[in-house]
Design brief:
The chain has a domain of 91 residues. Helix content is 68%, strand content 0%. It is built from 13 helices and no strands. Helix 9 crosses helix 10.
Length: 242
């Protein structure tokens, strides 16, 4: 199984991490936060900091998460990993799913805090239960590998499937591997082909290679089933904008 744990946060769009604000604060705070987030994405980190710091000081969890990212990456402020973790922890305890995810990544990689796989699993789970696909994927990896928790392929498959249905390409690839090997799910080459094909459609090269290997193992009837299942998944997942 070719699973890859994430390292420190870098590849996740900041725009995605702004979504946690909705419903948690009032309209005025939303406007200020949106301005801070827009400034961050425009590369105006000083303005982003000036908009975000007052909100974080007032207890806004999404603003704390954004400040944590700024301190982790050294954007607009000197890089300060322990301070970054402090902001993530505050936001996470207030229930912000993206702060929970970032705190989990920090524990997993030992960034700004002593490495602690059990704490990583704990916070990945909190974020995963709130629907963060990256957390669902990473939790699946931790469970599959038995890092910070008992190894359990069935539970890993459960979280991979949730992330895969949201369009997480690595989760789709890992779920396909489980179907091919019959680990945590009943062995099913039709489903393995379908999930590899969905991942391949998003540019995941190794999934394309595995899909083509499985293709030669399928009967003509099963290949048609696999194509139909792949088409159904693509329609559901890719066309919905996940």
């Amino acid at each position: 199984m070719r699973s890859t744990l994430r390292g420190v946060l870098s590849a996740v769009s900041v725009l995605a991490f702004g979504c946690s604000l909705t419903g948690l604060v009032g309209a005025t705070d939303t406007t200020l936060y949106d301005k801070g987030l827009a400034a961050y994405n425009a590369g105006d980190y000083e303005a982003a900091y000036n908009f975000t710091l007052p909100l974080a000081s007032q207890g806004n969890p999404a603003a704390k998460n954004l400040l944590g990212m700024m301190y982790e990456l050294g954007k607009g402020v000197p890089q300060d990993l322990p301070r970054s973790v402090s902001y993530y922890r505050e936001g996470a305890k207030q229930g912000d799913p993206y702060a929970q995810y970032n705190l989990a990544v920090s524990f997993d990689s030992g960034t700004g805090v002593p490495q602690n796989y059990r704490e990583a699993v704990r916070w990945f789970r909190h974020a995963a239960e709130q629907g963060v696909s990256a957390a669902q994927y990473d939790l699946g990896v931790m469970i599959e590998r038995g890092r910070g928790t008992d190894k359990n392929f069935q539970k890993a498959a459960h979280w991979y499937q949730k992330a895969a249905k949201q369009g997480h390409v690595q989760a789709q690839n890992n779920l396909a591997w489980l179907y091919e090997k019959g680990q945590g799910v009943e062995r099913n080459l039709v489903m393995a082909y379908a999930w590899f094909d969905v991942a391949a459609a998003q540019g995941f090269e190794s999934a394309q290679q595995k899909r083509d290997v499985i293709r030669v193992e399928l009967t003509a009837v099963d290949f048609r089933k696999a194509q139909a299942e792949s088409a159904r998944l693509k329609k559901t997942i890719l066309s919905s904008g996940n």
